[in-house]
Design a protein that fits this description.
This protein has about 130 residues and is of the alpha/beta class. About 50% of the residues lie in helices and about 15% in strands. The longest helix has 12 residues, at about 15-25.
Length: about 130
């Protein structure tokens, strides 16, 4: 039997509020929280801490997901990449520049699409859009 976990897209407006919702749902019983980081999200979905116990089957219900397609869409992603480019000492500017260029020419993924891909990379998690 799959564990059901639900996130509420009405609580999500941007990257910060996305992670607030992830922490509210997945990290409620932990004494620490995830920072706004895609690698941390990926690690969380492997299980072993938070709401997922290892490789257990999970039905992830994303309420109001279509609203978040826009919230975490093109404009937000463009800003996300531009902010990273302001810190070449921390981020790979060449890669980020290529990601931004791909986004601008219509071949790159939005933050929302990256999150969906991260979820899809975990075969034990079934994403249910509501």
């Amino acid at each position: 039997m799959k564990k059901t976990i639900a996130i509420d897209g009405d609580n999500i407006r941007d990257i910060s509020s996305f992670y607030e919702e992830i922490n509210r749902v997945f990290m409620a019983n932990e004494n620490w929280k995830l920072g706004p980081n895609l690698d941390a999200l990926n690690d969380l979905l492997y299980g072993g801490f938070g709401a997922i116990n290892g490789n257990e089957p999970v039905a992830l219900v994303w309420l109001n997901m279509e609203k978040n397609r826009a919230d975490l869409g093109l404009d937000l992603t463009r800003t996300f990449y531009r902010d990273k480019l302001r810190h070449p000492e921390t981020y790979d500017s060449d890669r980020i520049g290529k990601d931004l260029a791909a986004l601008e020419n219509g071949t790159g993924e939005t933050y929302f699409e990256i999150v969906l891909q991260i979820i899809a990379d975990h075969p034990n998690i079934e994403l249910l859009a509501c």
